[in-house]
Design brief:
Blueprint (H helix, E strand, L loop, with lengths): L1 H19 L3 H6 L6 E5 L6 H17 L3 E5 L6 H8 L7 E6 H10 L11 E16 L8 H10 L5 E4 L5 H13 L4 E4 L3 H10 L4 E5 H9 L4 E5 L25 E9 L4 H15 L2 H9 L3 E2 L4 H22 L5
Parallel strand pairs: 1-2, 1-3, 5-6, 5-7
Antiparallel strand pairs: 3-9, 4-7, 4-8, 4-9, 4-10
Length: about 325
């Protein structure tokens, strides 16, 4: 009888202690019960920041908890990505990742402190966008085919600019050189603005740039768009052919943005977040706004996004090695 009472008291004590401890199943069922943070690995005001804030507003309304954007700029997005990779896998710290931080970085940084595949749980693609192959008006080429012939006839004489070493603009140029079997000199700049200035003045002859950045100068006739790097023509440039159409079959280079959680985040939380993100992306205000900026709003399942990221790493790794680009 005494043994029974002791056992019963011990059981009651243990039960009381268990009630004080966090219960994974219960906390996941109640997710979210506090603010969610979306880490943007760039300074405020850029497209990734604006996208995260707009999607975050939709998530906050749907989930009933605040969604706070946390800007952690540095190392081309790697600083913020590393912070999220090492955060608790509970669904309360997310990453607005991009092509550079979550695909290219794996090959570009010899000592990258995170693994772009193993350390994240992809939630959904957010947007994609092509780059534009543009030339200065002095270049004697009105089509992508004519430019290719010109580049082949002048190996090493043409210069292409980018917003910096290891950027998607730089590596898309390297991909083009490899696919077209041409030789061009890469000229890196500190950002797109300086690159565009030199392109318009003829200091460089060609650039692979963002639609949004180049569009005003294309419309003003100060530079000429010859092709886009996506498989389909973007709505903002319906008359500009793709490089695939122009003869480089299978060529595709996209700038993309997506939402990630740390690896190990419970599957039910991943699925819930992904579903709400995809609902947010269907909102006309989000779709219309980003379409006007040259983006294709493109949600996905976690599984499809995971496969896409893996394919992007596989695509960009040999291009980085071919280019010789490296960031320490």
């Amino acid at each position: 009888m005494i043994r029974f009472l002791i056992s019963r008291r011990a059981m009651l004590a243990l039960t009381g202690l268990a009630m004080l401890l966090p219960a994974p199943g219960r906390s996941q069922a109640n997710y979210p019960n506090k603010a969610i943070h979306i880490v943007v690995p760039f300074a405020p005001g850029g497209s990734t920041d604006v996208l995260a804030r707009r999607v975050g507003d939709k998530l906050a309304a749907a989930l009933g908890q605040p969604v706070v954007v946390d800007n952690r700029a540095g190392a081309g997005g790697a600083l913020g990505a590393d912070f999220v990779a090492k955060s608790a896998p509970d669904g309360y710290t997310l990453l607005a990742g991009v092509t550079g931080s979550n695909a290219i970085a794996q090959a570009l940084y010899p000592k990258l402190p995170y693994d772009v595949i193993k350390d994240f749980a992809p939630l959904s693609t957010l947007v994609t966008a092509p780059l534009v192959l543009a030339v200065t008006p002095d270049v004697k080429a009105n089509t992508a085919a004519e430019f290719l012939a010109l580049a082949k006839s002048k190996p090493g004489e043409l210069s292409f600019g980018s917003a910096g070493n290891g950027t998607s603009m730089h590596l898309t140029g390297e991909m083009y050189k490899q696919a077209a079997d041409v030789s061009m000199v890469h000229v890196p700049y500190r950002g797109s603005a300086a690159m565009l200035t030199d392109l318009m003045s003829g200091q460089i002859q060609v650039a692979f740039g963002d639609v949004l950045v180049l569009m005003p100068q294309i419309q003003a006739g100060k530079i000429r768009a010859l092709a886009v790097t996506s498989k389909a023509r973007p709505p903002l440039l319906p008359d500009v052919p793709t490089l695939d159409e122009a003869g480089l079959k299978g060529f595709e280079a996209l700038s993309w943005q997506g939402l990630f959680a740390p690896a190990g985040t419970p599957p039910e939380v991943v699925e819930k977040l992904s579903a709400e993100v995809n609902k947010a992306l269907q909102s006309p205000d989000i779709r219309d706004y980003f379409a006007a900026q040259g983006f294709i709003v493109q949600g996905s399942t976690p599984e499809a996004f995971k496969a896409f990221v893996a394919s992007e790493v596989k695509k960009w790794t040999p291009i980085v090695k071919y280019s010789g680009a490296q960031v320490n």
